[in-house]
């Protein structure tokens, strides 16, 4: 009996020494292979840190040891206790167990080596909150729970109060059974996209199976909103994909109702994740009153090579009832394609595409955003560029398209090719010594352009005759840079010579036939017959020029030494140029044909309507041009820093006039109307507001038909009218106000949205809740002088107002409108109200009048996976048709 007590006392004292916390290296806890005595007791070095490794052994049959495939590493901060038989290890405080790629951390962990099981739980702190809860990691999978029991061999376990992130959602469960490496089953669970510890909403899952990184399958489920259960409607079953990679599947349509087109299912279809290089989505819309649409969207990408996407849409909108006068059936189409080449693919050769082509009125009938609806211009470009390495030559080939949706006018350029040569210096020596000679500064550029284009209405564009309606030609431009020089070290002179040549493949011949009536273009009398002569037709012109420019500075210093204004500087930049161009209307050039029409000699351009313009103008030109730019700045004391004395204060610049410029020219050779209109432009900033203004003064009078005559205004008028006849004037300015609160964070969030594309959809839907308010307006005034059609001239004034205000941290109201002062009516106006509900959002949009008159009220979950979980009430603008 005493021997037994002595033995237990010896073992107990040994264990007390083992459980003391020390600072040292981690030991290796082994189960020996030769002595069965070690199955009953474990030898421990008490000088080592509380940690260890259990190593698997496969020795003789006499060894009683657990069979595990890899070492189990464990450690703890407070203490590690090993059971008397060596089969259980108890870890306390920041405990951690690692087995292969499985990692478990918690406050308390019990490791059973015999059953290959582990149990973990947290601990309550002084406030009663549970801390150091079990965190289980297996590869990329990670979750946190209240307690956990897990078997390394079967990969099964029981988990309580666990929260796992599955794709864009979270699964909460009071009790979960892990049945395999990737599968869980649970009862009375929650599925939500809310990341709060206590979610604001969730689907209550009576039972469910979760397959990590794949899918979630549920039995009957119902919605719970703010802890209030909504039993009807109940979902009999649910399927939530949560694969980390793209996968094929059905695209669930959105549903709704419109007064004109009826009930609808919109954007339903199928998504095919074809491969890692491209995908494909087929979608469609269907309406109960006959309208329908089909859509194809694909994206493609090859790493380090190229990427792009294409969207094709075809829609048929039906309004009214068949057989009635108001019945309309309007087929529409849209093609969008973007392609970009990776910069690393080929530095000397690129191919890109940006195509936006649609039938006229497509956005009016099919757009869902105000930005697309208000857009009236579209353009496309498919471009190929090549740089010839180690040469100054470059080449580009483009296919271009542009259209105006207001009048359905469309222009096509198929193709347009440009070949250019960078500036070269033909007289510069390769192995030069000494200073550069003046003639070595002579440089030559070249650019050649080939274009073939047509402009017509959309309905007529495909029926245009290539020989009659298409315009084509080749243009050559050879600017020669002559050496510049300084005069008196202050005036810079730059001479120049320019040569241009156009090659057309047809020209016109004019013949007068008295009494005839031909369908001629504008400007050609109906009695003149226009014949087309095909063949190469050279049209060239050239000009000489010399320009001079300098800067003149003026300074004003106040006499009062105590003045806050320390100086005013005026900078004037005058420039003058002279250019000469011969009379290309002379008969030797053959550009203008003389025809006697009704006893009157008239001149007709044989190259009228050329793709690069017609023939050079008749009459020689020797023009002297003059311009003057002014800049006025003031230097004042910076009194914002009140901590500095007057002698320590710094000065700052204040711009009085950013720019004030005048420009005109005088033709020395013309026989009348030699002086060109005087253009005036001004820009300044007042109290942080940028103001732009401008005008054009014509120095000549007009007759009763508003045609200019050779009489100077200053000889006919008095007062300010002597300055000239005002033909155009404009004034515009705008102001923006915003609070400073949250400004830096707002700019940072805006950058994330634009650069990293962290929000889905268009950026115009982004609402910034960091700025409490902002307000701005723009004013624009334009004036056009009297004409025959408008004897009193034309005036236009518009003002645009926009504003946003945060009533609270979560409430935001915004408005945007434009008002035509002269017409007395508003343009497109919108009011928007947004409410941030954490995992939900509420929005109300209202267009009170106009073609887009409508409203929309929506409460929906933010997550894209639950995009159909929403309450929506709307009146579509399509009901205004």
Automatic annotation (TrEMBL):
<dbReference type="InterPro" id="IPR045659">
    <property type="entry name" value="LptD_2"/>
</dbReference>
<protein>
    <recommendedName>
        <fullName>LPS-assembly protein LptD central domain-containing protein</fullName>
    </recommendedName>
</protein>
<dbReference type="Pfam" id="PF19838">
    <property type="entry name" value="LptD_2"/>
</dbReference>
<feature type="domain" description="LPS-assembly protein LptD central">
    <location>
        <begin position="216"/>
        <end position="700"/>
    </location>
</feature>
<dbReference type="GO" id="GO:0009279">
    <property type="term" value="C:cell outer membrane"/>
</dbReference>
<dbReference type="InterPro" id="IPR050218">
    <property type="entry name" value="LptD"/>
</dbReference>
<dbReference type="GO" id="GO:1990351">
    <property type="term" value="C:transporter complex"/>
</dbReference>
